[in-house]
Amino acid sequence: MKLESSYINLLGLRFHAYHGVLEQEHIVGNDYCLDVRMKYDISKAMLSDNIDDTLNYAKAYELIRKEMMIPSQLLEHVAYRIGSRLIKQFPEIENIDIRLTKKNPPMGADGDGAMIELHLNQS
To answer: Which residue of 15, 76, 91, 98 sits 20 to 30 Å from the alpha carbon of 58, by its own alpha carbon?
Structure first.
């Protein structure tokens, strides 16, 4: 049996951070939700049952958490920084999908948030 493809996902990560264009957003912050999908070959780990043979998602989360704590104006910038750092730290990641949602954007709408989505390839 041969592994066709595999992904490691971190879903529904919640943060309170200080991203936004408006000054008030840098003072009071906002709630964010982040999903990350990383194409990563886990075939060795499937057989070895050894953490050293896979992407350690606790380390990936810590990297994401640190990036989320750096204030930025745009969600696009935050998500790109997260993707770049993950690929740099874990070069075996083939590609990465990131969905970052600002739960209460200051736009006067009644909704579930504003989200950006990135699809980055290792190249």
So the answer is: 76
Secondary structure of residue 33 in the 3-state scheme = strand
Active site residue 102: yes
Q: What element of type H or E holds 61?
A: helix 57-68
Residue 96's Cβ-count burial label (10 Å; 0-12, 13-18, 19+) is buried
Residue 65: phi and psi, rounded to 5, are -60, -45
pTM over the 0.70 mark: yes
| Per-residue pLDDT tens over the stretch 46-90 | 999 999 999 999 999 999 999 999 999 999 999 999 999 999 999
